[in-house]
Amino acid sequence: MNEFIYRRNAIAETILASRRNIVRLLLAKESSSNNKTSLVVASAQIKSVKIERIPRSQITGIIGNSNHQDMLLEVQSYPYAEIEDMYALSAQNNEAPLLLILDQLQSPSNIGRLLRSAEAMRAHGVILQKRRTVGITPAVVAASMGASEHLLIARVTNIARTITQLQGDNLWVIGLDANTESNLLSEMDLNRAITIVIGNEATGIRKLIRNKCDALVSISMLGKIKSLNAAIAGSIALYAAREARNQVD
User: Fold this and answer.
1) What would the pLDDT profile of 200-231 be if each residue is shown by its tens digit?
2) Across the beta sheet with 215-217, what order do the strands follow?
3) Which overall architecture, per CATH, does domain 83-248 show?
């Protein structure tokens, strides 16, 4: 089924990644040319993407809001990967796997920000549950600034079984838990094959998934605020894992 990617950065990265079948680029007739728009159009032309100009009101009507920056990219649905693809990528990069599991996150903005951080920290893949977790929708693509298009993202039926599989493949699985005081992220050995689990924005990691993790860790909070939202906490953990590898390299 086709969908419409909106906002310039998300559209530009989707075209650049070339992982989806692209149907056409829609531009508002009323929009004035600028450098960012011209770059998107040039990229589309290089990829031989069909370009159409239609009224701005029609673009707004397609996605139901005006948050489109005068352009839409019609594409086929997101090409989900397999966990084996993530292992292959880590081997290609001569690195131990660095994966991220999102346990029933609901906010497209939080998921998008985590995907952006995962791509920036060169994570080898992100794992979502098929049910009760937002998939890679156009809203998530926009929130990720198009980072989703450069990542390997898998959807699985059962997170608990997937964790068992990862552990069997010698990945260490840690869950971020704001209520945990015994294990600080800064004190953990992160230079290893690792999977980081991020829980739901309101309820955190489910009890079943908590019990499956090899360790639960928290982030040291030095100020007056004692909690971070899922996207910020996950981004800090991803940075810590990548930094641990960089120090050894």
Assistant:
1) 988 999 999 999 999 999 998 888 887 789 99
2) 153-156, 125-129, 98-102, 194-198, 172-176, 215-217
3) 3-Layer(aba) Sandwich (3.40)
